[in-house]
Amino acid sequence: xxxxxxxxxxxxxxxxxxxxxxxxxxxxxxxxxxxxxxxxxxxxxxxxxxxxxxxxxxxxxxxxxxxxxxxxxxxxxxxxxxxxxxxxxxxxxxxxxxxxxxxxxxxxxxxxxxxxxxxxxxxxxxxxxxxxxxxxxxxxxxxxxxxxxxxxxxxxxxxxxxxxxxx
Length: 167
Known about the structure:
Distance between the termini: 30 Å
Strand content: 5-15%
């Protein structure tokens, strides 16, 4: 099972009269829906020879972009939940994997992907290599770099990611 649901609202928190409604939509889609699907479908998935759950998150779990007030948070929550689920299921045959993508050139960007976006082919190739190597946390392309920079120089990473051209 692959959970790849995501929506985002580009917004300024205090300036947006609909911000709470947008938050609820993003929280339900990006975080609650994967949890609900995992809970409801796990009895079926466990019947497979190699039951595997893959949650798709983002490098922004380490360094959030300010234009995405809730996307970053919902994906960080899914990251944390994935880690806990992996621990809770460690004595079962259930594999719990997280894939952290950078920006990918997909319709999610409404025809204007950022310059740093990678192709879907590159994203999938790196993900498959990670799966073949048995990794449980797969950081794809610049998500690896974002992770490293966030650990070495967190303030610099936050400033750099938020200086990128808005999508």
